[in-house]
Amino acid sequence: MDVPDQKCGSLKEVAHLFHCDLFDTEIVHKIGQILLLGLSTACVDNTSGDLFKSPASVAVDIRKEMVDYLTQRSETFIAESLIEQGSPYMITSEHPVDIVSDLIDDFASSKQNLFSRVSGWLLSEKREDKIDDFVQEMEFRSFWLMERRLSIGQTLLKYLDPKNEFHCKMNFGSAEDLSCHTNACSFRPISCTNVGCRASFSSVHMEKHDSLCPFKILPCEQKCSESITRREMDRHCITVCPMRLVNCPFYHVGCQSSIPHTTTEQHCSEFLEPHLLCILRLIHKEAAMDDLKCRVEQLLKVVFPTHVCDLYCGCLSSRERNSKSLRDEGKALIELSSVDQLCEAQCVRSLTRIVKDLDAKIGPLDKYSPGTASEECNNTADVPQHVADKTMSKVQSTSESISTLEDLKEETSLQHHID
Ligand SMILES: [Zn+2]
Ligand SMILES: [Zn+2]
Ligand SMILES: [Zn+2]
Ligand SMILES: [Zn+2]
């Protein structure tokens, strides 16, 4: 498709060639922007301290001079660089936008009047403001339309991009061939297809844009099941993602684990023993660690015999026995003391409440010396007799033992029946 370099052909042949004029829209747009800023700088520095001239009064002339200067310098820039640096590889490190920017600076410096050079004006904040103001004024008055600046940018780019990284170099023998190419040219302008994104760019940048597009929908970075736009990702990961890291609910009493929020339940059940130890340390502040560890094992072995429930229900009148809520409460009494129930207590308050309750039933901590304690600990899962005894007696003080029933409305009448 690519025909031989046009310089090989005669002038006549060149005239018949069909060139692809597509270019990197982003780069040309950047050049278009710095052209206006450069013009403003040159006009402001040329008239600062002058009572008879304003930047606007010199803008037309300076613009013409600037365009001529940039075109001429760009034309010869690559050749000059080659001679100066002696190596063609140096050029590729220079981005066309940077080169144009340097050339504009050179031009603007040449336009500084005496006042600008000697008065400290160049370093003043007022200068920056004045340059910005004049840029806005020119935009407001449509003094130098972007469209025209883009066309100058294209011309400069052709000179400053000898490796065709930012503009297309393809030539064709017929309009059909050219049109065929245009539909596939890597510099053809395209628009982002992500919902909500209005960006347009040369096709060659599709991948780059896609990798940065704020509207691109991505799977959650923390690997939850959700997909979120890139711009929403951080917020999602910090606020609502089920996989966000949170402190263990028992952080303040000593468990330093950071866990994905969604695995809190699993952590609480896997770390039940360390958590129990934390709670016991609060309850028995003076106790030895060995005693506390032993108490943890005891707590995990305590299971109320099922007849406690029957007994509990038996204390109720038939009307109350038929009451679903009261039957459930009887059930709650049993579940309350199981390991499952301990696992379900996923905050310091609820676990402390349950542990305190069970702890009181088992009896004083100091009763167990390390020797007897281990004996107790090695016991089977059966409830020690004194625990069972205590359990039975505790049933009679419902308000103390059934902490989940604290706000039970019928508490008083229940107490009455049990008594
Ligand atoms: Zn092309
Ligand atoms: Zn986009
Ligand atoms: Zn997530
Ligand atoms: Zn923990």
Automatic annotation (TrEMBL):
Residue span(s) of domain TRAF-type: 209-260
InterPro entries, A to Z: Znf_RING/FYVE/PHD, Znf_TRAF
Keywords (A to Z) from UniProt: Metal-binding, Zinc, Zinc-finger
Pfam families: zf-TRAF
Segments of skewed composition (Basic and acidic residues): 406-419
PANTHER family reported for this sequence: F26K24.24 PROTEIN (PTHR10131:SF161), TNF RECEPTOR ASSOCIATED FACTOR (PTHR10131)
Species of provenance: Coptis chinensis
Region (Disordered): 398-419
This protein's name: TRAF-type domain-containing protein
Example GO molecular function: zinc ion binding
Zinc fingers, TRAF-type class: 209-260
UniProt entry tagged with the keyword Zinc-finger: yes
